[in-house]
Structure formats: C-alpha cells, structure tokens
Amino acid sequence: MKMDDRKQKVLLAIVHDYIATAEPVGSRTIAKKFRLGVSPATIRNEMADLEEQGYIEQPHTSAGRVPSEQGYRYYVDYLMKKHDLSPAEETLIRSEFDIKVKDIGQVIHKTGQLLSQLTHYTAMVLTPSIGTSSFKHIQLVSMNPTQAMVVVVMDNGTLHHRLIEIPESISAEDMETISSVLNAKLRGLTNENIKHTLMKEIYSELARHKHILDLAMELLEESLTKKSEDKIYLGGVFNMLNQPEFHNVEKVKTLLSILEQEKLLCGLMAGEEMDLGITVRIGGEIKNQGIKECSMVTAAYSLKGQRIGSMGVLGPTRMEYAKVISVVDFMTKNLSQALERMMRGLGK
Amino acid sequence: MKMDDRKQKVLLAIVHDYIATAEPVGSRTIAKKFRLGVSPATIRNEMADLEEQGYIEQPHTSAGRVPSEQGYRYYVDYLMKKHDLSPAEETLIRSEFDIKVKDIGQVIHKTGQLLSQLTHYTAMVLTPSIGTSSFKHIQLVSMNPTQAMVVVVMDNGTLHHRLIEIPESISAEDMETISSVLNAKLRGLTNENIKHTLMKEIYSELARHKHILDLAMELLEESLTKKSEDKIYLGGVFNMLNQPEFHNVEKVKTLLSILEQEKLLCGLMAGEEMDLGITVRIGGEIKNQGIKECSMVTAAYSLKGQRIGSMGVLGPTRMEYAKVISVVDFMTKNLSQALERMMRGLGK
DNA sequence: TTTAGCACTCAGCAGGTTAGAGTGCTAACA
DNA sequence: TGTTAGCACTCTAACCTGCTGAGTGCTAAA
What we know:
The structure is a homodimer of 348-residue chains. Chain A is an alpha+beta fold and 348 residues long. Chain A has helices at 5-21, 27-34, 40-52, 69-79, 87-99, 104-119, 172-186, 196-205, 210-225, 249-259, 262-270, 321-343, and strands at residues 56-57, 66-67, 122-126, 135-144, 147-154, 159-165, 232-235, 278-282, 294-303, 306-316. Chain A folds into 3 domains: 5-79, Orthogonal Bundle (Arc Repressor Mutant, subunit A); 87-129 and 230-343, Beta-Lactamase; 135-225, Heat-inducible transcription repressor hrca homolog, domain 3 (Enolase-like, domain 1). In chain A, strand 4 (135-144) and strand 5 (147-154) form a beta hairpin. The A-B interface holds A 136-137, 139, 141-147, 149, 151, 153, 155, 157, 159, 161, 163, 237-238, 241-242, 246-249, 252-253, 256-257, 260, 345-347 and B 136-137, 139, 141-147, 149, 151, 153, 155, 157, 159, 161, 163, 237-238, 241-242, 246-249, 252-253, 256-257, 260, 345-347. Chain A binds a DNA duplex (30 and 30 nucleotides) through helix 3.
C-alpha cells in the first residue's frame, strides 16, 4: 500500500502519541507536539484519508483517532525506527547472565525477569527442548533393603532418576556389578544403537537380575527418547495491571485465565514461525480470542544454530514495539551465547 | 467476653449472611431469613449493642451491618460449627493423592490445586524442608576431557549434582577410583561424622587428585549441610478475582504484588506458630499491611510427628471459615500420610 | 421486655445541563 | 490545487439535582 510522506508522518505521530498517552489523538495535539508545519485542519484532512484506508479509527464521534491493527502493522513494518538499548541496559543484561550461569533453569528464569523488567510487559520464556542424546553414566544405588535409585547422567548435562522396588535378595555389590556392566556395554550409545543383540548379551550375563535390569532399562530408554517437556516461565504478569487497558477487572480475568493455561501458551510460542527472526503479532494476528487486544513479540533462541526454544513479550496492542523488539533481539542473542558457553564441551 | 444467647444468634446470622452475600445485613433480612422469632426492631436493639461492643460495624449510616475483625474472631472461636467435607470431596482428595504419589514436587503441586479448587480461594503450600541427612552414593562422571559431573544421592531420595572443571590429565578410570574410595570411606556419614583424620587419610590416598577431590567434597558438604530451600507453591490466585472485594483493580494490584514476593509469603507461612494445629489469622492479625483485608488459614504438615512444612488458604476476611478450616485440616492429614507412604523405608 | 410506628439519614440512580474536545464542511487564500 | 481559518455540529464526561428505598434510632404503647 503506497502512502504519501505526510500521511506517514501523521500516522507515525498518532502511533507514537497513542503509545505514550493511551488517549485518542486529536489533530490539534499532533500539530502542536509534532511540528509537521501544517495546521490542524490539514492534518484533519489527512486523518480522514487514513481512516478511510483503515489505518486509524475513531472510538466515537468527538474523540481523536487511535491506530487500528492495520495501522500498527504498517508502523511496525515500515515506519518504526530501531531503538537501541542504552549501554546501562546492555551492561545489566550481560552482567546478570555472567553471574547466574549455573544451570539452565536459572538462566531461563533470569531471562524472563529481565525481559519483563526492561519492557514493563509480561515475559514468557519456553524452556529449551534439547532433544534426544546419549548417556554418560548409569548408576544403581541401594537405598534400603527393598528400594534402589536408578540415576542416569546424560551427555547434555541433565540427570534423570527413579526409585525402584527391588527384591531383598539383591546386595549392594550386585547393583554395583549391574551398573558397571551397563556402563561398559552401553555408554555413549543412543537409543537406536542399543541393538537387541547387545541387550541379549547383557541379559544373559546378568540373568539373575532380570527384574531389576528391566526397571533400569526402562528409565534409560525413557531418558534417551523423551524430549524434555515444554515448560514455560512467566514473568511480570503484574506489570500488565499498570497498563490502562487492564483497569477493568473483567479484562484482567480473561488475561489471567489465559496465562494460567500453560499448554495454550506453549502452543502460541512454539507455533508456526520456525525461522530465527523476530515475529510480531498484533491483536487478532494472535490466534486467540481472549488476548485479541494484545500483541506478542516472539523470537527463537538457538544452540549451535539450531532453534531450541523461544521467548516472547506480551503487552497491549498499544505496545512500545521498537523498544520491545530490540530488547527481545538482544536477549535472544545473549541467551543463545550463555547457553553456548554453558554447553561448551558437552555432547550437544 | 460474655454475650447473651440471642446476641450470639444475631451475630451468627450477620456473619453467615454476609459471608454468603457480601452485602451489609439489615435487621429485616435477619428477621426474615433466620427466624429468630423476634421483630426487626428487637434485632435492631441487639445490633446496636453488638456495634457498641465492637463485633459489627456499619459501612455508612443507612446501610446494614458487617462483621468486624473482632466479630469474625468471636465467630471462629465460639460460634462456628464444624463443617465436614462431603464424601465426594474426601474421595476426590484421597484418589488424587493415591495416583499422583510419584515425587515430592508433584504432591505439593496437587495439594495446592486441591486446596484452591475445594475452597475457591488462593492456596499456598510451602515445600517440605527435610533437613540434613546422610548420603548414599557419590559418583564422578567424566563428561568430556575438561569437565566432569559430580552426583550425590542422599538417603532421603533427593539428588544433587554439579559440573566441575578437571585437568585433562585425569582419566575416566581415575574418577571411578575416586568415586569408589569416597563411597567406601564416607557413605552414610553425616557432616559431623566426617572426621578430619578420615579426610586426611583420603587425601593422602588420592594425593594426585587433590584439586578434583576438593571440588567433589565441596558439593558433598553443601548437600549434607544445606536445608532444602523454602519454596512456595501458589494455586488459584485467579479465584480471588471472582470475590467481589477484588472487583477493584487497585486491590488486585496490591494482592498480586504481595503474592509475587515469595520470601514474604514464606515468612508469613513459616512464621511464629510452630504447633501442629490450625491457625486462623483474620485481617490485621496477618502482620502485613497489603493483605489486611484478607484472612489466612494455615496448618503445618508433618513427617514422623515432626513439622516439616505448611500449607494455607488466603481469602477475603469474609471467608467461609468453617469450610476452609475443615479442608485444610483434612488436607494436612492426607498430605502427611502421603509423604509418610512415600518416604517409607527411606532414611528420613 | 418487646414491638409498632415514625422521623431521619444516606447511597445510588435517573434525568438534565454544561463544558470542552474534536470533528467535518465551506469558503477564502496563496 | 493545496492549505487554512472559521464555524456549526456531535458526543462524552462531569456535575448537579431530586427521588427512591433500605436501613436506622427513638419513642411510646402493649
């Protein structure tokens, strides 16, 4: 859609002012605040055109104009200027990531906190799905005469464990033996590689302990096949209540009821767009009735170039897109790096 | 405070009606709904007395009466009748606990869900602090030439792990050796029992690997001393928005901002009252400005008679005390039992 | 001691009025 | 032909006003 220069300026002014004040913007306001060098009357003419073309709308006759979804879309696609983070903000992010780089959970948590803190909207971070891998070590530990713990250490640094029931006849030494055999024969193999022939060999070697072996193999198989579950971290839900669009309890209720449904959110985050760039969805472009008055800025983060999770910011359609986009951009890059550092040397 | 029989009946009527309707209760309403056999005028006289004594108050001149905090207190202490759970509810709780008895996290989660679901208020469950214990197994696992994983299995069934940096000179066999030595010498000991003489012995035996030994011992010591951190699970925050007292966004905001502060909540839950019974705190009795219009019903749950965590329900002061108290009571008992079952046989 | 009756109070609502913000149109102007 | 001043018009939000009904407290009679 072609749009002449002055119309763009007027649209830009409306979007900026409305984002800042949450009040419909009138022609006088634009003329005064944005110094376009023309009178309110001229701006009124332009606004009438913009409304006709669907970029702005009027809440009621004697009110100013408000950007429509189409207007925001045009703004995001063509008018918006990049808005770099302040050095202070960049430093904050970097230092937080440097300090708290202990484990994945913490990094995700921190990411969410930073996202919501910097944008003042709600942050959503999807935990990385690292996919299948091989294992480094399996260990059976006797806990008491009738129970044992099976521990599997994966090559990506995660752990799986399970408590199993054992016959009293098995000694701690037996379990040590089983552990060694399993480690010696299977270590480093992926699920596909664990051939049945190999398993037969093991079962014949440890025939006495078939039952316990079954239980251990069950956990091992699960660990090898199962992708880590999608979990989502939410931060700054509270921020949304400061937005004037949520001064109405009914809206707060719909919003919160949606944010409570983890699965739904995961769907929204993990959805369609598999590219690495930033996706901006405005209002109805989010395929969900309940939050059709919100916008989402999402992006994937990666490990070794492979997309493994995503993060996003949810705010009112009247969102500071430029700011949010740069924050999300910067955060994905930093999170990817932090993960890279954390995983350095690990199998995956 | 002595109170004549009819006054008690009037107070009870006011509390019940206000809990049910959230509207100030007038003399006519009481006469009609509660059949005390006297006219509204008589009830008015009683109400005047009750107000003078501080049990009820009037929001404004021409409104009915509302129980004061003191009124709720009197109700809870003297007037309230026990309100057993319905068989259906009891069955629901029991069956949920039977199915989901896999790990502690899940049990806590389920408890919170049930609490909020049954009461329609917000549930808070503090994770058990199992305290110090001894360890069952320690294992060093080589991940790659420069990193290894230390895994410690505690006798209460929890796991601790950490990634450490290692010199390239150390082989996987070395690590196996170190693991065996540590297990052989230290297994089952508590932190106090690990004598310096013993440590010297180990260090001399494994002199070549002092560095890696240090790192492993560090995790081990931490695991042995550190109490599991207090974490809190919240459920049904959303429920509160259906309460008419939270139809005002400002109040929702203060409430949510408090519920976001985990530490504060832990303080409230873990606080003073260390006995096993149920504690009811009404309005200002909760030592927190922000939720002075709420009440809390809390109780501890236990393992082998020892208090190890607590749960609670947060609702408006206009709360269904009788119902909530019986739910909390039933839940603590069931949770304690579930934990008992889960820990059966484990060290602690 | 209880109750009927009555005067009084006050929140909330409906209806009416006003002020101000903002528009669209028209006619004059550059 | 594009721009602008002026003006009539529209509509919301705020304010006032009077009314209604719920509920009270007091008094005097039962």
